Amino acid sequence: MKIHTIEGYIQNIYLVAYPDKLLLLDGCSRADVTMLCQYITDKLRRPLHQLKLIVVTHMHPDHAGGAHYLRNLTGAQIATANCPGQWYRGLDGMLMHLSDIALALWVAGRKRKARKNLWYSRTLKPDVYLPDGAELPGFEDWQVLHTPGHTDRDISLYHAHRSTVYIADVMVQVRGKLIPPYPVFYPRLYRSTLLKLQQLAPATVMLAHHSELAFAEIDFAQLLQLAPTQPVTHWRSVKTKTRRALGLGKRGSS
């Protein structure tokens, strides 16, 4: 097994290569699909049909945006958490989906990337639902860990033999410092996730918005101190400002 780290549009892509099959640790963005396919066929010299499984750790544009397109091109299955319902459900979900795509484009601009089409369906249609502790189908050396907080359905992927875990957006690096992600919809679940990873204590950790780093480099005490106690989301802020502009006053948020 070899893990290839590929620079994506706004995040790192982790492609795991075995002698006869490939595993994608996250669904990347729509802007990454062509580049990733070329990497498989040109760099690895492998046929696209060897991509057997695409994991979607959560529904944000840089983690789910390429999943359906890649399945159409490769025949791979899509696997995700067995969390009920759709993340972007209802009118709120439709508007949040648009705002998340806009935020991803803003991040791309900050990284001086050319503007690209990031549109993708807000409804995920997976082939496999993954409970906490399950093994990935066809890749039983990887274990699924439910690690919510950033959203209600985040998952991480743990490889015991290599002693590494891919944690997607559980933490991000800003100005050389590891901090909680933005947004955090479920602060209590997020704190539990940090404690779960701290107890797991792998040798290394793979982040979507940072390269692989040694577990010993992570200051969990500081992360727990920085972890919010109330939901911190751009969508919460947008709704509050809109209600104030309409003279609706303060209301509880979902």
Automatic annotation (TrEMBL):
<dbReference type="GO" id="GO:0016787">
    <property type="term" value="F:hydrolase activity"/>
</dbReference>
<keyword id="KW-0378">Hydrolase</keyword>
<protein>
    <submittedName>
        <fullName>Zn-dependent hydrolase</fullName>
    </submittedName>
</protein>
<dbReference type="InterPro" id="IPR001279">
    <property type="entry name" value="Metallo-B-lactamas"/>
</dbReference>
<dbReference type="InterPro" id="IPR050855">
    <property type="entry name" value="NDM-1-like"/>
</dbReference>
<dbReference type="InterPro" id="IPR036866">
    <property type="entry name" value="RibonucZ/Hydroxyglut_hydro"/>
</dbReference>
<feature type="domain" description="Metallo-beta-lactamase">
    <location>
        <begin position="10"/>
        <end position="209"/>
    </location>
</feature>
<comment type="similarity">
    <text>Belongs to the metallo-beta-lactamase superfamily. Class-B beta-lactamase family.</text>
</comment>
<dbReference type="GO" id="GO:0017001">
    <property type="term" value="P:antibiotic catabolic process"/>
</dbReference>
<dbReference type="Pfam" id="PF00753">
    <property type="entry name" value="Lactamase_B"/>
</dbReference>
